[in-house]
Structure formats: structure tokens, C-alpha cells
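Key result, reporting period 2: structure in, sequence out.
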């Protein structure tokens, strides 16, 4: 009996200890809500419902038959930077000949991220489709030219962090009253029609957003742009003009044109004199004939 009295508490103690270790392990491994659980709203614009590789469920476009036009023109193209199973999110889209958008109900305060998915599948050059994006009347993306950003048939995500606290929406340094609805608008510009391929809203920070697959050309371009920005900032801090240092990746159109009055033209006169000396005797002989 004495052995049983000792054994039962010991087993219970070991069981509790194991549970505690498992709980600590789960917390250490980020045992909070999964990415899919953090997403509060997601839509596959112009397309059917789809669950992506991260478990995010994009519902069928609620604007179908109500506003704008759906297009699956991109279905004939592979989309770079996107996984094969999720290319559908970039191959369908909704566009409109005027400003249009979606309303997202948000009931809880906190930090949020708006992710908008794009791919240019029609135009083959920049300045063909350019538009803005507004978030509750705040312009959060200005002059979006998808082709200029990433080229043709290439996935591009626009990511906009914002927060809601005490009835106020804060985004990109601006604050406005929040009434429980987030309005995402794609604003008609001077070049063609605004559009979107898919979008979702999630709780979290920028670090929580899944990254697109790498694109060597784009990564090199981004690195060079960052180097240029650093050089400009360094020049400004040193009191120098930013124009004094040319960006490394820009190729000059050609050598500088020399001063024509500073050049020595004596070398050009010799062949002219020789030609003139040959021409005169030849002309004299022709006249004798």
C-alpha cells in the first residue's frame, strides 16, 4: 500500500511535467493562430473560391454580376513568382471602367495587413494601365503600374499595414474615423481601367505576410535601387548634392561631346593637301588631251 501511495503522486507529477514541457514547446514554436486563422477576409477577384498553399480560403468574388467585369484572360499564361497551385489567384481579375472596390467588416481593434495580388497579363509595356488604391479615402498606393514594377505575367503583391484603435484608422501616417468597415477602392486613372486579381486582410505585421518566390532580375533591381537611395542619403548628410554621384546601374548614352574649337585639326589637313596636289596635275593632263 505504501508503494502505491508513492507511485500514484509520482505518476501524476510526471504527467503534469510532460504537459508543461509540451505547452512551453508549443509556445516557443509560435503556437498562436496559424496564418489562415489570422486572415479575416479574402476574395479571389473575378474567379471562383480557392484555398491557397498557406490554407487561406479565398471566397468567390462577391461583385460577380453586380459591378465591373471579370476576366480569366491570364489563364492562358504561366505566372512567374507564384506557385503552380496558386497561379489561379493571379490569372483571374476584376476590372471596371470607373472606380470600384470592396467593403471589409472589421470588428476588433489591432494591427492589420491588406495584401493585394496583381499580375499584368494583357499589356506588354508600361504606362498602359496606371491607377491608385484608396483605403477609406486614404491613398495608400499611388500610380500603380504593374508592368513597370515587375513586367509581364509576373506576380506582384502590394502590402499595406494599418491599425484600428479607439475608433480610429491609422495608415501611412494618416488617421481617420473608423465605422467598422474598411473600404478598399481601385481608383480610375488616365491610363486604362483599375483592377485587382485577389486580396485579403489579416491580423498581424509585415513579418507575417508570406513572400512571393524570388525573381533574380527584380532582386537585382531592388538592390541597386537601395544602393542608390543609400548614396543619396549619404550625400545629403554630408552636405553634398545628390546629383554629384551617378547611380551605378545607369548606363550613360555615350561619351561627352568634345569642344570642336579645342581640338587640333592639323592632322586632318595633310590628306587634304595630298589630294589637292594629285588633282591639279590630273586636271592639267586632261585639258591637254
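The corresponding designed sequence is given below.
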Amino acid at each position: 500500500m505504501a508503494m502505491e501511495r508513492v507511485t500514484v503522486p509520482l505518476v501524476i507529477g510526471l504527467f503534469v511535467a510532460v504537459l508543461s514541457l509540451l505547452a512551453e514547446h508549443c509556445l516557443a514554436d509560435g503556437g498562436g493562430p496559424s496564418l489562415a486563422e489570422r486572415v479575416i477576409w479574402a476574395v479571389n477577384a473575378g474567379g471562383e473560391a480557392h484555398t491557397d498553399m498557406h490554407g487561406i480560403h479565398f471566397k468567390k468574388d462577391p461583385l460577380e454580376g453586380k459591378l465591373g467585369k471579370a476576366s480569366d484572360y491570364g489563364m492562358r499564361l504561366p505566372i512567374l513568382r507564384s506557385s503552380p497551385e496558386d497561379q489561379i489567384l493571379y490569372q483571374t481579375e476584376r476590372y471596371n471602367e470607373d472606380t470600384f472596390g470592396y467593403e471589409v467588416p472589421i470588428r476588433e481593434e489591432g494591427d492589420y495587413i491588406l495584401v493585394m495580388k496583381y499580375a499584368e497579363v494583357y499589356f506588354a509595356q508600361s504606362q498602359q494601365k496606371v491607377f491608385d488604391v484608396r483605403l477609406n479615402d486614404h491613398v495608400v498606393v499611388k500610380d500603380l503600374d504593374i508592368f513597370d514594377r515587375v513586367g509581364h505575367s509576373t506576380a506582384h503583391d502590394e502590402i499595406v499595414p494599418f491599425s484600428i484603435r479607439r475608433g480610429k484608422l491609422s495608415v501611412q501616417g494618416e488617421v481617420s474615423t473608423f465605422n467598422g468597415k474598411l473600404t478598399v477602392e481601385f481608383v480610375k486613372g488616365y491610363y486604362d481601367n483599375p483592377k485587382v486579381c485577389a486580396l485579403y486582410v489579416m491580423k498581424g505585421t509585415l513579418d507575417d505576410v508570406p513572400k512571393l518566390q524570388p525573381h533574380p532580375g527584380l532582386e537585382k533591381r531592388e538592390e541597386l535601387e537601395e544602393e542608390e537611395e543609400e548614396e543619396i542619403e549619404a550625400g545629403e548628410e554630408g552636405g553634398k548634392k545628390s546629383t554629384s554621384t551617378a547611380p551605378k546601374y545607369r548606363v550613360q548614352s555615350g561619351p561627352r561631346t568634345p569642344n570642336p574649337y579645342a581640338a587640333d585639326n592639323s592632322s586632318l589637313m595633310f590628306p587634304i593637301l595630298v589630294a589637292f596636289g594629285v588633282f591639279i596635275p590630273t586636271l592639267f593632263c586632261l585639258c591637254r588631251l
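The longest helix spans residues 2-28. DSSP finds six helices and 15 strands in the chain. This case is discussed further under Risks and Mitigation.
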